[in-house]
Each structure stands twice: as structure tokens, then as C-alpha cells.
Amino acid sequence: MTNASPRSYKRFFRKRGFWITTALLLPVLMIAALAITGCLASRMFEPGDETGLRRFEKAVTLDDTKDVTVSFLSSTTHDEHHSGPPIVYVHGTPGDATNWNRYLREPVGDCLSIAVDRLGFHKSENGGVFSSFADQAAALKPVLGDDERAAPILVGHSLGGPIIARAAADYPGRVAALVIVAGSLDPDLEEIKWYNHAMRSPLVSIWFPKAATHSNEEVIAARRETEELAERLKLVTCPVVIVHGTADSLVPFENVAYMKRQFTGTAQVEVIALPDADHFIIWTDAKAIREAIERARELVQVKRDMNERSSNRTESIEEMQVEEMELEASRPDL
């Protein structure tokens, strides 16, 4: 066998050099891009400490008849005799229930507080990606209101925002209020970046945890899902509080105007704009988020009082009608 010439080696590397360079540089570029957008800095890839919290799981059957397991974290220091609505927290993408640790350890208003590992993440991974808002909303059914549980206030950050809106639209009467924090609901503002496409390459995805690749698929599907959600937003009838930073570099503040236009089914839509605040306000502006949740609790009570007054008026009118009928029936025939 003859040895290959130096020229043949050059041809070999010239033909393959582009792909070798791409395989080596793409992960570096991806990490740089994610660092710039703040995803790595926000610690959303690694679950936090669960000390002092209660973990529980529920089985859920999705609309396509697929069975999944959904994992939740719950507060343990809340007032068990509190009559107010519980608070359910829904993280963005990527993320997990521990993103809300400080809200679970110090519950707003001493209310029962629960955070979910969304489908596809952490202990709710279920072996795949669940980019459908309908599926993600269905996964919340174990903590929505029913005959045994009070309807909760749903708090959603980033992609959690449209997901809780979908839950309120799909399960009316089972959600007391929404607090949408830096929510991405406007389809026209959903952009797919170059690194979203690059992440789909096995040469790139192998360098990242599942949370990152699952998140990437959710981002790519977000425009389709928000377009589908658009027509359903008018079905939301519960109070809505919107919290958004005016300097949000990931989810533009223009989403707020879109939400105000689309939530036509409720008379209670309030906006809390945080001047110069960026995207990760559940960490950087926790006080403002707590105040927004407190405001949602007030709106729930206002709506409840209005419904009671309306019910009492209806009962009074019905009683008057019955009395008039009885009086008419008691008159002697002439």
C-alpha cells in the first residue's frame, strides 16, 4: 500500500473542513447566543432547591387520549384555613416549578400556592416535547377549580402567559383570574432566530440538555400556537392582570397592546407596566409581581360580590313575580 500524498490530505480536509469547522463552532455560537439572550444567566436549565416544599404528581389524559404524569410543587407554610383562591404558577420556556420557589416559600396572602413542571420539563418530561398550548393547558386540570377545589388564580411567565390564557379559555369557570407576566401572545411578534434552526441539528443539540432542545421546539411552534389561541382569547371571562417590563428584550412590550385588544370577553383587564424592566421580572421585580397577584385577588373578590348582588336582585325579582302571581290567583272571580 502506498502512502497518501500531502496533496491528497489537503483535498480531504478542504472537502470536509467546512463541516468539521461547523461542528466545532456551532455549539460555541449557540452558547454565546443563549448567553446574550439571558437564558443561561436566568438559571432556567437547572432545577432549584425544593427544601421545605411538597412534591406531588397527578395523572392526566390529554385531548388526544395520551396519558401523561404531571408533577407539581406546593407550599407548606400557607394558611390551610384561608378561604381565598389558591395561586398556581406556570413557568416559561425553558424552566420548571422551582423557578417560583420564593413565591411558594412565602405565599402571597398566605394562600395555597402551587407551581407546575410543565409537560416536557423536569419531572413532567414524559419522554418528549409538548408544544401544543392545548396540551399544556390540559395538564393543569388537576389544580383547576371543580366541585372539590376553588378556582385558582393562574400566574404565567413568558410562554406560561399564553398557556394560562388557553387554560382560562378552554376551562371557563375553573379559573378565577389570570396574571400574565411578560407574556408572549402576539403571533406577529414571534420570531424564529438562526440559532433555533441550528439547534435542531444533531451536531448542535447533543451539546445541550433536553430542557434546551425541548424549549427550542416550543419557540419554533409558538407562532402557530399563538395564532390558534388568538380567536379563543375572547372566551376568557375572568379578570386579567398584565405585568410587563417596558425594556423587555425577549418578549416585546407591544404584546401588551395586543392583549388589551384581544381580551374582549372580560371587563376587567388591568396593565402594570414596569419602566426599564427586562424579561426576567419574576426574579428581578418580585415585589411588583406580588402586588399584581394581590390586585388579581381583589378583582376576584369584586367580581364575586357583583355576582352575588346580581343573584340577589334576580332572586328578589323572582320573589316579586311569585307574589304577584299568588295575589292574582287569590282574587275572587267577578
Mean pLDDT value: 86
Computed over alpha carbons, the radius of gyration is: 25 Å
Percent of residues in helices: 40-55%
Low-confidence stretches: 35-42
Major sheet size, sense and barrel closure: 8 strands, mixed
Could you name the CATH topology? Answer: Rossmann fold
CATH architecture classification name: 3-Layer(aba) Sandwich
How many DSSP H or I helices?
A: 10
Report strand order across the widest sheet. 1-2-4-3-5-6-7-8
Instruction: Specify the overall morphology.
Output: globular
Whole-number total of structural domains: 1
The portion of residues forming beta strands comes to 5-15%
First and last CA, distance: 129 Å
The ordered H/E elements are: HEEEHEHEHEHHHEHEHH
In short:
With 334 residues, this protein is α/β, with parallel strands linked by helices. It has helices at 6-37, 101-105, 133-138, 160-170, 194-199, 202-205, 210-230, 255-262, 281-284, 286-330; strands at 54-61, 67-74, 87-90, 113-117, 153-157, 177-181, 240-245, 269-274.
Task: Spell out the blueprint of helices and strands.
Elements lengths: L5 H32 L16 E8 L5 E8 L12 E4 L10 H5 L7 E5 L15 H6 L14 E5 L2 H11 L6 E5 L12 H6 L2 H4 L4 H21 L9 E6 L9 H8 L6 E6 L6 H4 L1 H45 L4
Descriptive notes:
With 334 residues, this protein is an alpha/beta fold. It has a single domain, classed as Alpha/Beta hydrolase fold, catalytic domain (Rossmann fold). The chain has 10 helices and 8 strands. Helix 8 links the parallel strand 7 and strand 8. The chain starts with 5 loop residues before the first helix and ends with a helix. Mean pLDDT is 86; it is low at 35-42.
